[in-house]
TrEMBL record:
It comes from the Bacteria. PANTHER family: LIPOPOLYSACCHARIDE 1,2-N-ACETYLGLUCOSAMINETRANSFERASE-RELATED, TETRAACYLDISACCHARIDE 4'-KINASE-RELATED. The keyword Amino-acid biosynthesis does not apply. It comes from Usitatibacter rugosus. This is ADP-heptose--LPS heptosyltransferase 2.
Amino acid sequence: MKILVIRRDNIGDLVLTTPLFRALRQRFPEARIDAFVNSYNAPVLAGHPDVDQVHEYTKGKHRKGFSPGWLERLGQMWRLRKEHYDHVVIATPGVHPRQIRFARFLNPAHITAFVPPGWKMFGVDQPVEYLGKDRHHLLMTYRILLPFGIEGDPPAPRIAFTPPAHSPGEAPVIAIHVSARKPSSRWPEERYAELMRALHERHGARFRLFWAPGAENDARHPGDDGRAARILASAAGLPVEAVATNELEGLIAGIAACDAIVCSDGGAMHLAAAMGKPVVCFFGESEAHLWHPWDVPHRLLQPESHDVADVTVDEALAAFDALRQEANAA
């Protein structure tokens, strides 16, 4: 049996799809299980024990130079068609006619996809009713496996990584990720240095600083190079290592070397959770019931205003202290 799972969106979405690969492998241990993802999030599946091959494509906004992307894409589609997959699984929650058309072109024996309740969609012979945003995104995604007879509690998200090597009693290394796509989830930059100073005084903590790379005025790919530089300047005298991560592989390796993370809602949060790192996270105008860290100790800070500027340093410090006590008691 040959199965292709399609998941072409963001980092966190793909992390929360990894339980599908584990469940499929447990159900069909001899199957070939492949993934079709974009080049930006593909490193999430690097070395994944339940995925045989990762096929990736480059979105237009991530394409470099003047290469004819449509020609490359067409060639890739024909190569995938020649794989003669038995099953193509469109794992993205919601109704996605364009992805269904893509799956039909691949000409598999079966297509599994979400459809509106009561609907039939051409080519989808294994439909799963899309019930809306009624549960965590991981659980919404996991329902796509119902036609395979797979249900119940999902496995935890899983990515391949190398855990940190620490001596007993050594001070913790805390990842501090300071970027967020939504303005309401961007904690004021001056508070990061205050928090790090308090954590260092209280726990002897050391820090690794992460951010979205790029200039703040880059119209296509705005980053937080300036923000990170200002935070580093404010944290002078503290044991802070700046970790520039121009590729996702670097972010994964960088977080893997830490013991916990303080961050906003986003891909870095889900990566850390999939590695079992305790998480303190800031949520602004995000739906916490859909996107909270899954199956890992965490403290989620979301004020009534849904603007993380209203979260104080003392609240963040108290959240980390509570999380540390929980981890020590486990």
